[in-house]
Batch of 3 targets.
Target 1
Amino acid sequence: MDGEGIVFLTSCFEIKFISTMINTVFKDGLFEGKVALVTGGGTGIGLRTARELAQLGATVVLASRKEDIVKQAAESIVAEGGKAIGLPCNIREPESIKACVDDVLQQFGKIDYLVNNGGGQFPSPAEMIQPKGWHAVIETNLTGTFLLTQEVFNRTMQKNGGSVVNVVADMRNGFPMMAHTGAARAGVENLTKTLANEWGRYGVRINSVMPGTINSSGLNRYDPTFKEFIFGYGKFNQTFRLGTEGEVAAGIIFLLSPAAAFVTGVNLAVDGGQSIYHPLFPPEENTKNEVWE
């Protein structure tokens, strides 16, 4: 795909559910009475996080520009015994953001947790990215994250407090073939720190999670050659494998939870040590590393 287009990785895939219970290390009822809004919640990391939040007692609102996908996902969470609804929300459009937040507050009266997981990008050498593609990625990943977070803060969290987790990407050493999303996600990491400083006085904690290379449904949208390249990235972290959606969800849920009550403004790397790769101690395959699905 050239730089004129944009692949939205959070709302374009067939949803398959394996079981009605998922792994969690958190106690039953941890989020009872809480309301969580998860963007990009119809598939991948967003859906895995939403399912676990619902299993732990939260009422979960799944939001995406693809209404049919999030409604299907919400129905499946309800079938698993959770409380969930799906709402349309295009985070590139302020009026769509406002309508989504309006709907949540009318139905539930508050938003305790916000997970900014929605986003999109496409692989391309930097010299080939066209202005249309650049702006689409920046507007989705950076501007959309800010506008939704601002709306939620102004409408409910400023009065009631809350916790926000922004899902970024492994861009500490640059993001070759993804210059647009690397720039946008780095902006979100800085925004996380800024808002944590400005809004801490209102009882709002804001953190980010930086996934490494994750074996997620989002990979299915890439060209087979690029997908094969991504799968090979498992050899560049100390676990010598790709991460799972469940491992990223666990990090998100920890930062939302009371266990992280004294944690704000941090960027948690969930990457198996990919961000500390050093050629003096290259990763080696082993059978001792635990995998959390």
Target 2
Amino acid sequence: MKAIICPKYGRPEVLQLSEVEKPTPKDNEVLIKIYATAVTASDIFIRSSKLPIQFLIPMRLVLGLTKPRKSIIGLVLSGEIESVGKDIKRFKIGDQVYGLTGFGLGAYAEYKCMKETDSMRGCLAIKPNNISYEEATVAAYGGLLAFQYLGKGNIQRGQKALIYGASGTSGTIAIQLANYLGAKVTGVCSSANLDLVKSLGAETVVDYTKVDALDPGAQYDFILDAVGKLKTSKLKESCKQALTPNGKYVSIDDGGLLLDSKRLDLIKEFIEAGRIKPIIDKCYSLEDIVEAHRYVEQGHKKGGVVISLVEQTGSIG
């Protein structure tokens, strides 16, 4: 099968298209034919290993000291169950699925074996039936982040919520979810993405390229930092000072991402009901994954950047 190999940490150019042996599922595994994957911020960190020292050492201990322990990286996938082990109960051949591979990685390939039970090595669920495989990768990664961390705010109807990084993979879903919950949403993004963020349900948008502080008197019951703690700015500090006395500030870096198939089921319900829609910025082929990594690394994407393993984007789903 075709796969992208990451033989060492480094720039996007370290990624190599290669032929590797197709995996065979164990009794407690399913074999997934992957139709789409994505280039996430997590993939960039894994490939480049560019992190502050307090994060770098723990990550290297888990993923590999001098090079990735698993040469095929990739965190998110969507595809079809091709075969199942004899102990599998949740899935059957032909099921369309989506999910994350966790520390199991391996999504940058044509096939991946996964267990049906949730663990740090992945979670898997039936994909929403009204979106493409490509969109499903954005729903899996961005959806799990948005639902987990927005849920910490216990948002009530009429409250004010601010999403910092509203145009990213998790931010675009968080805007829609907060709007559905009845919040009055403010989105922080760049000039190029103001219209997108408004269209997703933000009542107010703040352009971080033009202002360093919120308007005097602005206050929010909940603030979600959807870009992570590594990205700092005067505006972000201003946002932290704009909480109501009982308000809550949450970052997507506050603890690990929970790999939860039940939450994937909930995301599926929301998408099929038309409450949220995953946003795709660009779609690349597996052969162009180096260019995809270069683009994501620039930090200006809106929604998700996906990798299609089928000839025509969106033709399956």
Target 3
Amino acid sequence: MTRLPLATFALILAFILSPCFPTPAKSQVLPDSSLNGPQPTTVLVRVVAQGAMVLGREVGGARVTITDMATSSILATGLQQGEAGDQNQIMRTPHMMEEPIYSSRPSAAFTTILQLQTPTLVEISAEGPLAYPAALQKTSKTLVLIPGQDLTHDGIVLHLSGYLVQIERPRPREPLIAKDDVKLRASVRTLSGSLVRPYGDWDSRKLHIYGEVLIGDRVIERLQMFYDEGSRSFGAPFFVPPSKDVPDGITLRVIATDLSTGNSGLNQVNYPVLSERLLSISPRE
């Protein structure tokens, strides 16, 4: 029987046993700084009017604040700036789940880069529209931010509910004359500044829009308001009470509400009421 050389035998044995006993892999441990050091994390936030567009410069934008829930420290704060977005893309184009809605065209956003070292539970809050303090709304949500995992594209979307209701006639602080017939007019827009009107993307036929005349806290008349295309506002006539009945003036209030979306808004203004006009007849010469 032929004997194999010892070196050849060792090579054959190593070849046979190698699949069963692979060579140990080199360590995959990353440098300690990559695992434990702070990592830049981009966070993009969009504040959007419920059922409408992004709050952009037309309505003063919105203020966004990111707070560390564990320490209550503010990680970032600033203003959302930019455009309201593409109306056709946002309001009229069907979208699949996870498909971008607001970022496919330029639209307002707040972007910050946080230096995160560990997963961090944060509260992201927003308030706006900043150009209309009387209609200011607030909202917030909590979520965990992961170091190095950027949140971009549509980003974190926060919705604000409400309408911008502005009484345009009579003008604020304009004195009213007792027993006069006066026309109340008011415009209604979404919080992103889009006009509410019949048959539009924001169809006023789906809303309940009405006016009220108040003496003190008591409503004395409710007014059905109709849209006028010329003034792009809603109007209704009302009768000014006698001055003796309203020593402190009257309050006009306009309300717009949509029960299907939960959006509601109002505006009210107090007006002084002057005594009835006296017809002065000049004596004949």
